[in-house]
Amino acid sequence: MKRFFKPIEKEGSAKKPSLSPSKNGAENGDALPEVDVKKEPLKFLTWNANSLLLRVKSNWPEFSNFVSNLDPDVIAIQEVRMPAAGSKGAPKKPGELKDDTSSSREEKQILMRALSSPPFGNYHVWWSLADTKYAGTALLVKKCLRPLKVSFSLDGTVSKHEPDGRVILAEFETLRILNTYAPNNGWKDEENSFQRRRKWDKRLLEFVVQSSDKPLIWCGDLNVSHEDIDVSHPEFFSAAKMNGYVPPNKEDCGQPGFTLAERKRFGAILKEGRLVDAYRYLHKEKDMECGFSWSGNPIGKYRGKRMRIDYFIVSEKLKERVAECEMHGKGIEL
């Protein structure tokens, strides 16, 4: 999914809004190269890579050409699935790629070689990684754009990373960019399913309310389909079960990402945070061809079933600047 911003001209001026350079660059310990600091970010791309290493090995020329043509200022990636640095039994470094074994060194070299080739050499990369090949996020920002601060948790702590590397937050002078990979709701009221997702949504709600001092662009795999229009077959997803299990609370019933409980909480986050779904703001009607970002298993009852779970969410004060928001993928179908 991509999204464009239109610069807003100030009254009495024909100049576009721009960022003032930070004296020390990003305040997260990473030294940025000396480049001319230009405008605020205006063009954004979000991508659930479902294993970035696998994409480098199989789809990289295609993705490289896509990025070259789109020329986004910011690229947000979810499900990097690269382990954090740190040997077995030692504390992990979620901001660095693992390289303490021969296989991990080789994988890191493959990935970094791809990210140093055109057009990716024009970007600075930040990582937030899980301990294993699971989840994880990356944020690529053009080197001509200097974030004032890059952090890796919803409380804005620079040194602290969310479990499984699910958050990267970049703050610029005029706005914040939040890249998240939301945990799947699962099918049962267990610690790693309903309970984990409830806690996540509660913290997201607190974050958007407390961060209202500056416009927000929130993107990524949010693992929720807000309205009926956001799934191909609403009745199918509402009635979905895992091995016949029915949760005690009716609002927890259905496909993870489309339960009434999740959808209500997501709606509350948008309302309380004064946020707008950029894609739905521009696309009012259901698009059965290009309106979804996840596809079910092509074999079995999920064949042809689709959901929109990847988003660009923007502050209400930014919605008039959204010029375009499109999806360029439908999920994997064999």
TrEMBL record:
<feature type="binding site">
    <location>
        <position position="223"/>
    </location>
    <ligand>
        <name>Mg(2+)</name>
    </ligand>
</feature>
<comment type="similarity">
    <text>Belongs to the DNA repair enzymes AP/ExoA family.</text>
</comment>
<feature type="binding site">
    <location>
        <position position="48"/>
    </location>
    <ligand>
        <name>Mg(2+)</name>
    </ligand>
</feature>
<dbReference type="GO" id="GO:0008311">
    <property type="term" value="F:double-stranded DNA 3'-5' DNA exonuclease activity"/>
</dbReference>
<feature type="domain" description="Endonuclease/exonuclease/phosphatase">
    <location>
        <begin position="45"/>
        <end position="324"/>
    </location>
</feature>
<dbReference type="InterPro" id="IPR005135">
    <property type="entry name" value="Endo/exonuclease/phosphatase"/>
</dbReference>
<protein>
    <recommendedName>
        <fullName>Endonuclease/exonuclease/phosphatase domain-containing protein</fullName>
    </recommendedName>
</protein>
<keyword id="KW-0227">DNA damage</keyword>
<feature type="region of interest" description="Disordered">
    <location>
        <begin position="1"/>
        <end position="33"/>
    </location>
</feature>
<dbReference type="InterPro" id="IPR036691">
    <property type="entry name" value="Endo/exonu/phosph_ase_sf"/>
</dbReference>
<feature type="compositionally biased region" description="Basic and acidic residues">
    <location>
        <begin position="1"/>
        <end position="14"/>
    </location>
</feature>
<dbReference type="InterPro" id="IPR004808">
    <property type="entry name" value="AP_endonuc_1"/>
</dbReference>
<dbReference type="GO" id="GO:0003906">
    <property type="term" value="F:DNA-(apurinic or apyrimidinic site) endonuclease activity"/>
</dbReference>
<feature type="site" description="Important for catalytic activity">
    <location>
        <position position="310"/>
    </location>
</feature>
<keyword id="KW-0479">Metal-binding</keyword>
<dbReference type="GO" id="GO:0046872">
    <property type="term" value="F:metal ion binding"/>
</dbReference>
<dbReference type="GO" id="GO:0005634">
    <property type="term" value="C:nucleus"/>
</dbReference>
<dbReference type="GO" id="GO:0006284">
    <property type="term" value="P:base-excision repair"/>
</dbReference>
<dbReference type="Pfam" id="PF03372">
    <property type="entry name" value="Exo_endo_phos"/>
</dbReference>
<feature type="compositionally biased region" description="Basic and acidic residues">
    <location>
        <begin position="93"/>
        <end position="104"/>
    </location>
</feature>
<feature type="region of interest" description="Disordered">
    <location>
        <begin position="84"/>
        <end position="104"/>
    </location>
</feature>
<keyword id="KW-0460">Magnesium</keyword>
<keyword id="KW-0464">Manganese</keyword>
<dbReference type="GO" id="GO:0008081">
    <property type="term" value="F:phosphoric diester hydrolase activity"/>
</dbReference>
<keyword id="KW-0378">Hydrolase</keyword>
<feature type="site" description="Transition state stabilizer">
    <location>
        <position position="223"/>
    </location>
</feature>
<keyword id="KW-0234">DNA repair</keyword>
<feature type="binding site">
    <location>
        <position position="221"/>
    </location>
    <ligand>
        <name>Mg(2+)</name>
    </ligand>
</feature>
<feature type="binding site">
    <location>
        <position position="79"/>
    </location>
    <ligand>
        <name>Mg(2+)</name>
    </ligand>
</feature>
